[in-house]
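Recap slide: Major royal jelly protein, sequence and predicted structure.
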Amino acid sequence: MKTAVFSTFGIVAAAAAQVTYQNSSQTILRTDSGAYGPEIEELHYYYQQWPIGIAVSSTGRIFASYTRGNYTFTLGEAVNKTAEVPYPSSDLNLPVSQLNTSWNGISFGSGNSTGLISVQAVYITPESGSRPETLWVVDTGRPTITGEDGAPSMPYAQPGGPKIIGVSLANNTAYATYTFPSTVHYPDSYMNDIRFDLRPNITNSGKGIAYIVDSSDEGRPGFIILDLGTGESWRRLTQHPSVLRVDRDVPSYQGRPFYQRTIGIPIQTLREGLDGIQISPDGSRIYYSALTTNYLYSIPTANLLTPPTDPLAELAAANNVTNHGQRGGNANGFEGDSNGLIYQLMPEHNAIYYYDPADLQTKPFVRDPRIIWPDGASIAEDGYLYMNINQLPYQPLWNNGSDLRTWPGAVLRCKLPGSGTKIMSLG
Ligand SMILES: *[C@@H]1O[C@H](CO)[C@@H](O)[C@H](O)[C@H]1NC(C)=O
Ligand SMILES: *[C@@H]1O[C@H](CO)[C@@H](O)[C@H](O)[C@H]1NC(C)=O
Ligand SMILES: *[C@@H]1O[C@H](CO)[C@@H](O)[C@H](O)[C@H]1NC(C)=O
Ligand SMILES: *[C@@H]1O[C@H](CO)[C@@H](O)[C@H](O)[C@H]1NC(C)=O
Ligand SMILES: *[C@@H]1O[C@H](CO)[C@@H](O)[C@H](O)[C@H]1NC(C)=O
Ligand SMILES: *[C@@H]1O[C@H](CO)[C@@H](O)[C@H](O)[C@H]1NC(C)=O
Ligand SMILES: *[C@@H]1O[C@H](CO)[C@@H](O)[C@H](O)[C@H]1NC(C)=O
Ligand SMILES: *[C@@H]1O[C@H](CO)[C@@H](O)[C@H](O)[C@H]1NC(C)=O
Ligand SMILES: *[C@@H]1O[C@H](CO)[C@@H](O)[C@H](O)[C@H]1NC(C)=O
C-alpha cells in the first residue's frame, strides 16, 4: 500500500499528517488503544529463564516456577528486580542430568520424591494456628526432553516424581511431601494448578484438602483431590465433557490464528484439558475450565470431597456440574479474591476478565499490549493481582524449534477493584 498524502481542494497540506499503512497515529478515525483498567506496574523482569507459575507472599516475596527443559532450576525466588535464585536451595532443584530415566527403551520422568523435577505451579496459603505461611509446590515430575533427532517429548511420570511439597516461608524448609499412587496420578497425568481449603472441619483428619487439576494433554484430564491429613488422594470428573479440551480449537494471539508447530509432530492445536481452577471464598464451589474452551464451569466442593467408596460419587458429581456459559474467549490460569470474583487470564485478548457470581456475567478487569500471554497469577494480601508474562506462544516448543520470544519476561501487578484481597477465610 502506498503512502497517502492528504490534500484539501487540490492543495497539498505542507505539514499534513501522513496516514500510512499500520500507522494510525494521525487518523481521524476511532482506534482501539489496546488498554483499559487499573494502572499496571512492571515489578520484576525475567532475564534468565522463562517463568510459568507465580506466588507472592504476605511480605511481598515473589516465587516463580519454570518447567524444564534444560533450565538449571525449576523453583526460584526473586532477589532483586532482574534476578531470581534457586529456592529453597540449589540442592533441592535436581540437576538436568537427573530429570529423566529410561527403562526398556521407554522414557520416564524421575521418580525422586524429594528433589524438584519440573514445577508447574506454586500457591501460598496464609499463616494459621496450625501452619506457617506455606509455599505449595506442584511438581509434575514430567520434564520436556529432547531426543537425538531434536524432537521434544514429555516422558511418562514415574510414581514419586509427581508430588506436592509444602515449604514453610518462616524457615524456608520443606515440611510436607505428598505423592500419588498410579491409579490417581496416571503416567500421562499432568498436575497444572492447585487450590486449598485448610479449615479443620473440612475433613476428619482436620488438616485440610488440596484440589488439583490434571490437564493431561494425552486425554484423561480431571480433578485430583488430596487429604492433607491422611495423604489419601482420589480422582473425580475424569473425562467429563467439562474437563476435556475443545479439539481443534484455533485461538488468536496478537491478532494471529495460532497452530502448534512442534518438531517431529504434524501441525496441531493445543491439547491441554482442565487448566484453570479457583475456589470460592466460602469453600463451597470450585470454578474451572479447560484452556481451549470458551465456557466456564463449576462444581460444589461437596461433590469432589465425597470419597470414592461412595458408589454414587461420580454420578452425583457429573450431575452437579454447572455451566456458567461463555466468557468471550479461551482462558489460561485463574485466581480469586475475597469478593468472590473469579479472575481468568485471557491470552487471546491480552487481558484479564472476571466472572461475578452475583450477577452471572463475565466482565473486563485489565487489558494491555504488554500482557502477551499472562500465565500464572497470584493475589496477595496487599490487594494486588500479580501476573507472569512469558510470551508462551513464541516459545520454540510451539514454533518448530525457533525461539521467537524477546527478553525480558515480567511480573506485572495491578490493584484489585472493590478493596478485593487474598482469600483468608479458608484457614
Ligand atoms: C507514525 O506516524 C507519526 C506521524 O507521522 C510518526 O511521528 C511516528 O513516528 C510514526 N510511527 C511509526 C511506528 O512509524
Ligand atoms: C538450553 O537449550 C537452548 C536451546 O538449545 C539453548 O539455547 C540454551 O543455552 C540451553 N540452556 C542451558 C542452561 O543449557
Ligand atoms: C541481582 O541479583 C543477582 C543474583 O544475586 C546479582 O548477580 C545481581 O548483581 C543483582 N542485581 C542488582 C542490580 O542488584
Ligand atoms: C533420559 O535419561 C537417561 C538416563 O539419565 C539418558 O540416558 C537418556 O538419554 C535421557 N533421554 C531420553 C530421551 O530418554
Ligand atoms: C533425590 O533428590 C534429593 C534432593 O536433591 C537427593 O538428595 C537424593 O540423592 C535424590 N535421590 C535419588 C535416589 O537420586
Ligand atoms: C520448619 O517449619 C516446619 C513447619 O512449621 C517444621 O515442621 C520444621 O520442623 C521446621 N524445620 C526447621 C529446620 O526449622
Ligand atoms: C466449617 O466451619 C466454618 C466456620 O469456621 C463454617 O462456616 C463452615 O460451614 C464449616 N464447614 C463445614 C463443612 O462444616
Ligand atoms: C449438588 O450440590 C448441592 C449443593 O450445591 C447439594 O445440595 C446436592 O446434594 C448436590 N447434588 C448431588 C446429586 O450431589
Ligand atoms: C520446520 O523447520 C524445518 C527446517 O527449517 C522445515 O523443513 C519444516 O518445514 C518446518 N516445519 C513447519 C511445520 O513449519
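The radius of gyration is 22 Å.
The chain has a mean pLDDT of 95.
(End of recap.)
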